[in-house]
Amino acid sequence: MTTATASKPGAAGPTTAARPSLKVPVSLGVLSLVALVFFGFFGPSKTAEMKVSEQGDAIVLPALLIPGQAGGIVLAVLLLAMAAYSIYLWTKGERSPKWLPIVFAVVFVFALLVWIVAGAREPSISLAGLIAGSVTLAVPLVFGSLSGVLCERVGVVNIAIEGQLLGGAFTAALVATVTHNAYIGLLAAAAAGALVSMVLAVFSIKYLVNQIIVGVVLNVLVSGVTGFLFGTVMAPDKELFNTPPRLDILPIPVLSDIPLIGPILFEQSVAGYLMYVAVAVVWVGLFKTRWGLRVRAVGEHPQAADTLGINVNATRFWNVTLGGAIAGIGGAIFTLVTIDSFTKEISGGRGFIALAALIFGRWNPIGAFLASLLFGFAYNLQSILGIIGTPVPSQFMAMLPYLVTIFAVAGLVGKSRPPAASGIPYVKG
Amino acid sequence: MGVVKLELQGISKAFGSFYANQDIDLVVESGQIHCLLGENGAGKSTLMNVLYGLYEPTAGRILVDGKPVTFRGPGDAMAAGIGMVHQHFMLVPVFTVAENVALGAEPTGPGGLLSLDTTRRKIREISDRYGFDVDPDALVEDLPVGVQQRVEIIKALVRNAKVLILDEPTAVLTPQETDELLDIMRQLKASGTSIVFISHKLREVKAVSDVITVIRRGKVVGDAPPTASPTELASMMVGRPVSLSLDKAEAQPGDRTFVVKDLTVRAANGTNVVDGISFDIAQGEILAVAGVQGNGQTELTEAILGVQDHVSGSVTLDGKELLGLPVKDVLRSGVGFVPEDRTHDGLVGPFSVAENLVLDLYDRAPFAKGVGMNPAKVAENAAAKIKEFDIRTPSAGSAAGTLSGGNQQKVVMARELSRPLRLFIASQPTRGVDVGSIEFLHRRIVAERDAGTPVMIVSTELDEVVELADRIAVLYKGKLVGIVPAGTPRDTLGLMMAGVGPEGGSDDN
Fold first, then answer.
1. Considering A137, A231, A333, A334, which has the largest number of Cβ atoms within 10 A of its Cβ?
2. What are phi and psi of A48, to 5 degrees?
3. What value of ipTM does the predicted structure carry?
4. Which residues of A touch B90 (CB under 8 A)?
């Protein structure tokens, strides 16, 4: 890899102004060549059909028909052009604009999709379904990563997102079944998540126990407790304890009929709408309000906050608790929206993916939201591609979300800076 | 609120069984600059943290305008008109100036949204009035230290501070910035703000104070007028007569055995933290490297020792190239090295004094015996060094980390001077060390010079540089501004520390 030359040790030559890193131009170049070879030259001969709207929608748009090989070549050339532009900018000593890798990634994923679909047994896929499904799968991730944002911004590392999701999922199922009301279940899930978080808060803030360890222990604890209660209470009497009513999907008339966007934005359950509201509220709260300024100050320089009369540990405690409540709501999605009952380990490691999403999203609610969507997309792609029958073995498809996570966090995040005091307990004096 | 008179009565603050402050009385009259003079660890900062509500006093009371008050936190102190500029700035680096100033008392508009316009206006107002030149929308981490300090002062003034506590404010400043700060203090005083000025630097204290209160070991020793002589003040601080001037003979420079050529150290971000530095040191000569903290001194000394990566150029001692050698070989070549941060790099705190004294030689005879150690020899060595360097420790087996700063430094110095040296490098040899120990350490450094060793001292304290140097090298942003002879006026040195080259091209670089 030529990227290493930029930072080779010992080569302290004459002083030059720091050149922009070669990382972006080189990785774009390599990826576009990969695209040209695989998607173009070795592209499948069939034509991929991408359905934009479902039958029965108010507005039916024609499906996109993309010939596998020709489409692959066209897209690859587009990618090559972007890579060339990036390299051209580098030779002029300029950085690639921020939008370039993003647009590149979107086109690359699209080319990948064309390649896979056209190579499948039934070369047809519903684009609308793919995207809508991605959002649905992303909802718990978004709530989980928002929880992480709230905690880390105030200086507490929340490894326990997984436990909060799981606790929320279990409580939602139980309470909603017993009360026959999904909305009460949702509230109970928030309370359960908050409770898990409070344990994290008390141990890490008051007793200064290592936050990572408390988080990990909480995950194991919640997993054990819910697993035990599932086995002893829920499983023997499913009717009574584990048949929660679902949260109704509440489509907004007219708006929900817009192709592509409609089902994503305007055909959601209460929890789905709540997700959009939560992202917006947390973002505005963190960056535009007094509360947010204090929260960020506590996470960056707790001593400075203390000398200005801000109660550091109380701020931390309540923020962590709030974060837990949000993650709890995310957990409720599993049992009240996606699946209609609780099973052991229903969160299946999504809490850790949410953690990755918050880092990928650079500790920013909107970034975390977008990162969660990406991971949701990976999850959904995996299942849809399984259905249409791609030649790629299913085991590899199952790895997709995690591969995306690793590449996203390791490769694309680059030098992002976490809140300075994240993970460090505050002791006066 | 008008002017404020502040009284501390019988303040004591204990941490466990240790009294950092004991029965302290202090009266700060309004519109005065009241200096608290004392050595590091004398309890000045503790006292001010009590006054600022950060610590709760174990005993005693605080009176504002004659009325007793209790501060449960800094918020209460601020409400009573007390503001504090901490030694380590309490600024959030990733916030703007305005956000930092507003924090804790944020003006909000409709819906609880921040509206920092009033804060910006106030910052500009204060900035104009005192000539601060601070941009409210600049990110704090981008500002030079001197400007950050002004942001701290603005923070206090925006909160209507009538009494401003400045905790060791000049420690991080260049001499020019220090002068500017002293001017600002005089202006503040003229506009009715009282100032509590904490320092251990006699020159500044004498320049600006109305009253000086000397504190030693947590107790008030007494008051002194600013007209008191430096020797008197120093003796009050230390508790015994001290001589402030070092008697040292004229240097007898011999061969230039230590030569640094084009030394460059590249940091992770691609900038050169040490940038093409060349100098040499003769046997029997002290070269003092001056400069404000963070201008490449750390990297320079570490590059010579061999603990820095990305180094180019050449460093030769007695004609032998040191760059690229493992640290152990550099030390074995006869380099004695006192690192700037002794608790971090100079000592292993939980290890005993005796063990710390052989950290460099533990693996050789006589301290090693086969694969084991020879405890008798280690103890013998410890006893000798403790005596020779007057290390005040309960025993040779006490953990080094429990000693006072001065005694820890003596341990490091004793260890590094215990080998036959061909080069001696000491970074910040007396930082955080009491005046009494400073005297001793300085004499040892000069003794090493007189024994014919090339000596390199790195210090951010101009006083120390002037005291010890036979020649003075000044670093600024990783570059050598120049090398000037001892006796160069402080003003010139100060300008050099700000990057302005010496006039007349007197550098022999």
1. A333
2. -85, 135
3. 0.81
4. 301, 303-304, 307-308
